[in-house]
User: Which sequence fits this backbone?
């Protein structure tokens, strides 16, 4: 029997509809009665100038009065305007026209407000008001983040903490998510990473993009030290080293936290097949109290098409823990002098903890600004140059970011699907010129020190307040998606809710969604208005306020018309050859492992075919072996033999020392250019003597 066709089921559905309709009517009636009571209670007398007087009939607590005001604001689209003093007057009776709506006055917290309740006609208005904000409580998932501070701040802002399997509005993750997560995201959901942002967050990809832009715009992209990607650019780096006597800093292509970084004056010590990033060392940085430092500038990207970038006005300045001296062969191994990474310098005993802004190994950007002002530097011009570096760095990867975004999110028409906080590491030279060192896609939000708490907590709070997750109505979007799926399954005729793919991007496993262009522009205008009104301590640098700057940066958007991202160059061909060799090596290694595994299996099969001994014989052999092991004692150790062995070892060491065998082998490897990083670390004194020109084979 089909239950849906029964009279009982139909009766239940009818009662449910009746109950919902009754609840809706009661809610509307309560709202209208509450509004009428508020207006009748708070309307002054007929006199033009009359002070408010409290009476038992109208005694309302401030909290309840605020709640009523919010209800009126949501239901009737009311507007509140603060008066200048606490004396409120009502307009004359003849001044109110029928078209003007209902006007009244309310006193809250010793201030007078004018209440205007008007009818809101359905129309296309791009202004952001409370009626466009979803009333449902937004949910955030922080289970993929190791920073407890993010969840605590989210709770204070009214977010509900949920698991990843629930319908969250914001997903905060410390690592790059996979394509499957992008593919399954709903139209009301946001994630704190953009697909393709790795183009500027890996050192090798950042170097490639900046070098490509430098070839096209050589005068505009002098924002980073000269960089080579080894081993692809090994020849170019060696040619530069022959004509320029410089110090070079070498970094792993995908390292972090200062691991694997070292300095050298001779590139011949680098292996021809080592994968490294080689940069010219900025030997004259700006010093404060004799220490080298860099700036951690927090940047928020809320959209890539159109590109919208915000910079936080507060950040961190990270200092080295040894006073700076220009690099020489004797101090290139002092990482506490040349590196400013917190993970490196915190291990030094000279690391300084200080609650004062003008001291410590980690300070706020406001303290750096005060220091610049005291030393007659132009702080405004300096930060204008820093903003220029950040914008150009992001624009170097903008075509990839735009393509990946439209490919992953073809149907996000209400809000932007992503936002991201980036940590830009900026080094300043003695001329106050900023250089981009690296970009961190997941900057640390640990709050080990007081300065961290003063900077990072407001940063997270302002970020969650600025993102436009509240503009998306979760329930309405879910209803629209269910309706679209039902129409597609039943092939019913209706309004099309699909949109063609933007800019030719291919969707990744998602149906294409159509939206009216005017509706999409209206959603974008709402997001822009929301962001501009909730910036907090952020400042917007892209799009710039100045029209001349906007025209200047517009030339970099057409980079794909002048040079292809995938153009073949000598370096790219070299890189492809190296990738092919690495792939062949991996395949050979796998083949050897499979051969060894198969060979061992065949041997085991052959062993199984051997005739086994009888069980009684095997048990007898086992017992004998056990008894031998039980009564085993170590053999006799002769003291004379031990003394003789130690004598021979001492003679061997004396011979190596007297014949200078170690020094001869080390000098031969140095002359051939085959010294490794381990050799230089184990014998640093020999390497320094060779760098200074001594002949270690004869004397030191």
Assistant:
């Amino acid at each position: 029997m089909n239950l849906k066709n029964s009279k009982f089921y139909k009766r239940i559905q009818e009662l449910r509809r009746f109950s919902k309709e009754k609840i809706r009517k009661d809610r509307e009636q309560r709202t209208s009665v509450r509004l009428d009571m508020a207006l009748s209670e708070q309307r002054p007398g007929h006199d033009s100038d009359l002070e408010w007087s409290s009476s038992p009939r109208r005694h309302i607590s401030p909290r309840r009065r605020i709640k009523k005001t919010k209800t009126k604001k949501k239901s009737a689209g009311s507007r509140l305007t603060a008066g200048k003093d606490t004396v409120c007057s009502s307009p004359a009776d003849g001044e109110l026209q029928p078209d003007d709506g209902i006007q009244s006055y309310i006193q809250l917290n010793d201030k007078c407000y004018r209440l205007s309740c008007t009818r809101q006609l359905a129309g296309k208005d791009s202004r952001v008001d409370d009626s466009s904000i979803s009333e449902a409580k937004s949910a955030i998932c922080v289970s993929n983040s190791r920073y407890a501070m993010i969840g605590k701040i989210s709770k204070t802002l009214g977010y509900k903490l949920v698991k990843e399997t629930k319908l969250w509005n914001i997903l905060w993750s410390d690592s790059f998510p996979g394509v499957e997560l992008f593919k399954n995201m709903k139209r009301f959901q946001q994630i704190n990473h953009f697909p393709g942002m790795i183009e500027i967050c890996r050192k090798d990809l950042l170097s490639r993009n900046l070098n490509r832009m430098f070839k096209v715009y050589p005068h505009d992209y002098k924002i980073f030290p000269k960089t080579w990607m080894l081993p692809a650019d090994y020849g170019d780096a060696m040619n530069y080293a022959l004509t320029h006597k410089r110090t070079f800093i070498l970094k792993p292509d995908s390292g972090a936290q200062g691991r694997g970084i070292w300095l050298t004056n001779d590139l011949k010590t680098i292996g021809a097949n080592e994968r490294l990033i080689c940069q010219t060392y900025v030997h004259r940085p700006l010093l404060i109290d004799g220490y080298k430092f860099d700036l951690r500038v927090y940047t928020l990207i809320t959209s890539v098409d159109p590109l919208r970038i915000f910079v936080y006005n507060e950040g961190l300045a990270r200092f080295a823990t040894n006073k700076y001296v220009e690099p020489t062969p004797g101090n290139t191994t002092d990482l506490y002098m040349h590196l400013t990474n917190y993970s490196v310098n915190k291990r030094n005993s000279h690391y300084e903890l200080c609650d004062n802004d003008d001291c410590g190994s980690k300070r706020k950007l406001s303290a750096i600004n005060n220091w610049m002002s005291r030393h007659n530097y132009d702080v405004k011009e300096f930060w204008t140059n820093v903003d220029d570096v950040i914008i150009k760095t992001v624009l170097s990867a903008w075509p990839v970011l735009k393509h990946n975004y439209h490919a992953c999110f073809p149907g996000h028409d209400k809000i932007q699907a992503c936002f991201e906080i980036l940590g830009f590491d900026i080094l300043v030279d003695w001329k106050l010129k900023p250089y981009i060192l690296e970009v961190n896609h997941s900057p640390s939000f640990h709050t080990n020190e007081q300065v961290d708490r003063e900077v990072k907590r407001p940063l997270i709070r302002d970020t969650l307040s600025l993102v436009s997750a509240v503009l998306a109505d979760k329930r309405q979007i879910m209803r629209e998606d269910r309706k679209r799926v039902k129409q597609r399954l039943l092939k019913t005729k209706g309004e099309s809710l699909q949109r063609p793919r933007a800019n030719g991007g291919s969707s990744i496993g998602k149906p294409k969604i159509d939206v009216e262009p005017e509706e999409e522009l209206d959603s974008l205008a709402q997001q822009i208005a929301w962001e501009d009104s909730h910036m907090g301590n952020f400042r917007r640098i892209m799009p710039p306020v100045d029209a001349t700057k906007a025209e200047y940066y517009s030339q970099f958007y057409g980079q794909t018309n002048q040079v292809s991202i995938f153009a073949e160059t000598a370096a790219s061909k070299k890189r492809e050859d190296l990738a092919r060799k690495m792939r062949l090596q991996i395949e050979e290694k796998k083949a050897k492992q499979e051969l060894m595994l198969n060979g061992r299996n065949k041997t085991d099969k052959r062993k199984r075919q051997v005739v086994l001994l009888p069980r009684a014989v095997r048990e007898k052999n086992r017992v004998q072996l056990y008894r031998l092991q039980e009564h085993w004692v170590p053999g006799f150790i002769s003291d004379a033999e031990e003394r003789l062995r130690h004598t021979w070892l001492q003679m061997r060491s004396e011979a190596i020392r007297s014949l200078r065998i170690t020094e001869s082998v080390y000098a031969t490897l140095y002359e051939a250019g085959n010294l490794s990083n381990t050799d230089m670390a184990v014998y640093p004194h020999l390497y320094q003597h060779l760098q200074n020109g001594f002949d270690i084979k004869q004397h030191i």
Remarks:
- The CA atoms of residues 482 and 488 lie 10 Å apart.
- The radius of gyration is 36 Å.
- The first helix runs from residue 7 to 42.
- The chain has a mean pLDDT of 78.
